[in-house]
From TrEMBL:
Protein name: MEDS domain-containing protein
Domain MEDS: 6-166
Pfam family, one: HATPase_c_2
Entry keywords, A to Z: Kinase, Serine/threonine-protein kinase, Transferase
Keyword Protein transport tagged: no
Limits of the Histidine kinase/HSP90-like ATPase domain: 207-315
SUPFAM superfamilies linked: ATPase domain of HSP90 chaperone/DNA topoisomerase II/histidine kinase (SSF55874)
Amino acid sequence: MAAPHDHAVIFYDHDSEIVSAVAAYAHEGLQAGDGVLLVATPAHRSAISAALEDLGTDVAALVESGRLDLRDAQTVLDDFRPEGRLDLERFEDEMRTEVGAATGGGRRVRLFGEMVTLLWQEGDVGGAVHLETIWNDVIADHDVGLLCSYPTALLASAGLAEIRETCALHSEVLAPTTYGSTRPLPADPGEHVADLATAQRTEVFVPTTAAVTAARRFVGATLEHWELDHIAADALLVVSEMATNAVLHAGSPFRVFIHHSPGVLHLSVRDAQRGWFEQGRPTDAEVNGRGVSIVEAVAERWGCDAVSDGKVVWAEISTGV
């Protein structure tokens, strides 16, 4: 399997994010003289075309000249599985031929594809991983940039190991723009303080440094909604250390789980790396590497449990409620 070349992936919360990102990506390539192939859903193709027009691109003229190629992701995907099974060998052969022809004469090509997204939506994450692997093999010997995307709504039902493998097949993982947002998260209307004895929430985050801030925001917004602001400082410190361990030491996506039972807040971070919560050995002058010590100092109880596909680091904080 070829290592990721120029193959980025964007995880997004809202369609407007991916439309804006792909339009900018395609516009930059067209301005530089690159060929651009966009294999997207009908709604995204239409929105991206409109965004390109807003950027001053004559979409119809570029399509006519062959510089811009717009294709339907579902049609292309189905063409490679005429009997319901994805023909990966045929896909690789045809894409090698097409990419080779498109880059002939030294022209660079930019690709965007949502076939892998459709496979995830169908529950065929394994098929998507195989397709991502083949793309790496196809583009390795050509001047090609490839951009893929996945809505974060799909992460909840995918395994952390599958998300981790998908991320590892890309040269760059781009987090949702909301990871860096300072706007408060909307409260879940299904949760009420009257139900606090059984209140719980969970969220999956992709392995980027921005995910630590996003995890803090998720926990902070949840505690505010549950009227547990008085323990927010301790809880945010604990989740920061556990999330940082997942990203920096495990190199893994992670799931944050928050549960409140009478008098106790239970926080846990599950990642896809077997082992233990890394204990750093910093010098007196070093700031980083103190995660275990911080969790030990703040939590009433804490631990690290091995699970079949990784580990769960957990901590309990007294709420007095």
